[in-house]
Design goal:
7-stranded parallel β-sheet; Rossmann fold; alpha/beta; 5-stranded parallel β-sheet
Amino acid sequence: MRPLIVSLIPRSLPPVIYDRLAEIGDVVFWPSLDPAAKAEAAKRAEVLIATSSSRVDKAVLDTFPNVRMIGDFGVGFDGYDTAEIARRGIHLSHTPGVLSDDVADLAFALMLDAARLMPASDRLVHEGRWPQGGMPLAVKVSGKRIGIAGLGRIGLEIARRAEGFKMTVGYTARTEKNVPWQRFPDMLSLAEWADFLVIVIPGSLETHHLVNAEVLAALGPKGFLINVARGSLVDTTALIRALESGTIAGAGLDVFEHEPYVEDQLRRLPNAVLTPHIGSATVETRTAMAHLVADNVKAWAEKRPLITPVPGTERDPD
Ligand code: NAP
């Protein structure tokens, strides 16, 4: 019997994922089902396709009592109750690695946008205001100090790009890496040293509000905060105060504590560049992610080990 695969993801995915998954089982799109079809699908579903923002907690798992496999479309798994998933013996995969280049590219785009005043420059030309005067001088990026908080897959790609920009790289991580860059013991010391503090640590209870008022004060009035990890890493109230008061120079943010809702004060600030969680949002990368999700579901269906299981949930094939 073909397994029922339920996609919980409200946004459109590359069509290839549905073609690939349809080779393995019957695929339904949860948001478009009526209540009766939902009740039927909930009972039958053996596979869920989700993202961290789907918030797969105990209540969701109770809704789908026969689920054996969850394919996460993303790398951060802070939205999953991994302990409960492991306790129930459910397989959980994610898509690490294939999106690292895109997220690192976006970190650089946000750094350049914030420091070189790109959004305001673009608006000035589009709105025909150039003849009335140009832009104020901006801040140079090349040759500055970049402090990378989290030197994992994405952090490493950011460091590689930084070398091309002749920047001095520093980092903090839980473990020492075999790299030529200076390691700092914590976020605070990294912020004190850095001109650009780039956050790329996973969201978790342990990392909640690691970037607080003290860290922002240490970053200082010439410093920029870039967050491409999770909104939960940054104390938003402290960040708004720091941007309003000039405690830091500016910020580039792709992720937010209450996304997709962004605080009014943050949206009004001219020294914050804001993007709607688009770190991996290119056709090429989302297609690669789609294939990796499907490859993992296929491995599960063929009773092989998952290709990229979420750490801590690894288990033998059913
Ligand atoms: P990764 O390879 O697991 O790297 C995570 C890094 O963070 C590691 O260096 C790890 O240190 C470090 N770290 C973890 N907890 C820490 C702590 N408490 N203090 C200091 N460092 C800590 O993950 P990745 O693939 O680079 O992805 C990182 C995160 O980016 C994801 O979890 C996700 O939330 C986010 N992300 C965002 C987007 C987007 O669209 N904006 C897209 C993809 C991913 P060790 O190496 O010592 O363990």
